[in-house]
Amino acid sequence: MSSTDTPSTSDPITSSSDPKDTAPVLEERQNEETKQEKDEKKPPPLKGAEFRVYNRLAERMDVFHAHFRTAWNALWAAACAGNGSKSKSSSRGGRSIINDGLAFVAQLEVHHNIEETYIFPILARRMPEFQDDGKGGKKAAELLRQHREIHEGMEGMRKYLRSCRDGEQDLDMATLKSQMENWGTVLWTHLDQEVATLGAENMRKYWTVEEIRRIPM
């Protein structure tokens, strides 16, 4: 047999007749080709003015969310500092915590109502991250499901604080902390996730620069 009839040993695919030996090599090559195709299709990073336009909604949203984070942290610090103590709801300290808590819940509720009425419906035209199933069910986007879970926690906390404000019970810091723990995790997850979803690199997938400029916020 001449040398031209002998398979080359330099190629692991042609040098083995066992399909089990060649399968990993073929898979690796296919993965490399797929990665190369994705890299070729990936648009160049946004820069300068174009990035700022696409990132505008995320920056605006983060301003609102920073306020809610600050308000939450102040309430949480008060609840933790109480060490399970009770405070007369009529005392200056008790009234301050109750009023701050009720104001926080009311402001967050208004913020969500504005989002769901004016902003999310526009974004949902193209972005699955903001689409609702119309029935308030499990098929709604995760951000909307988070809203509903947050609202449940808000209502529980509002009901408790109102009962303290109206003198039905004393303000108990351990109870306040427990109320906040019920929905704190989903709230903070939502605050971060919503801003990330509105980030420039994600928004460019769905909107042009001119369209982004027309979205209200």
What does this molecule look like?
This protein is mostly helical and 217 residues long. The chain has two domains: 3-41, no CATH class; 49-214. Helix content is 68%, strand content 2%. The chain contains eight helices and two strands; from the N terminus they run H-H-H-E-H-H-E-H-H-H. Strands 1-2 form a two-stranded antiparallel ribbon. Helix 3 runs antiparallel to helix 4 (92-123), helix 3 (56-81) packs antiparallel against helix 6 and helix 5 (142-165) packs antiparallel against helix 6. The longest helix has 32 residues, at 92-123. It is elongated and about 70 Å long. It starts with 18 loop residues before the first helix and ends with a helix.
A few lines on this structure:
It comes from Daldinia eschscholtzii. With 217 residues, the chain is mainly α. It has eight helices and two strands; from the N terminus they run αααβααβααα.
How would you summarize the topology of this molecule?
Elements: H1 19-41, H2 48-54, H3 56-81, E1 86-87, H4 92-123, H5 142-165, E2 171-172, H6 173-197, H7 200-203, H8 209-214
Antiparallel strand pairs: 1-2
